[in-house]
Amino acid sequence: MEMLQSSFTSVNKVMGALSKGMFGARVEDELNGDLATLQANVNASAESVETTMMELHQVMAGVA
């Protein structure tokens, strides 16, 4: 049960960081099973947002 709570705490921290514009946040815990799948999906989403924001920044810098 403690592992489950810790996992959700880590995911919540990452999602909170992303919502505040800290796009480099990742879940770094070593998880298993469905929690590892959740971790992979959260981290892939964070990576996608980070990449999109970097590309958007580059485009905006080119326009300015």
Name the descriptors.
mainly alpha; elongated; 2 helices; 64 residues
Report what the structure shows.
The longest helix has 31 residues. This protein has 2 helices and no strands. Helix 1 packs parallel to helix 2. The protein has one domain. With 64 residues, it is mostly helical.
Low-confidence stretches: none
Distance between the termini: 52 Å
Q: Would you list the SSEs in sequence order as H and E?
A: HH
Tally of helical runs: 2
What proportion of the residues is helical, as a percent range?
Answer: over 70%
Domains, number: 1
Instruction: Please report the total strand number as a whole number.
Output: 0
Radius of gyration using CA atoms only:
14 Å
Structure classification: mainly alpha
The share of residues in extended strands comes to under 5%
Please describe the biggest sheet, giving its number of strands, its sense, and whether it closes into a barrel.
Answer: none
Shape: elongated
Overall mean pLDDT stands at: 95
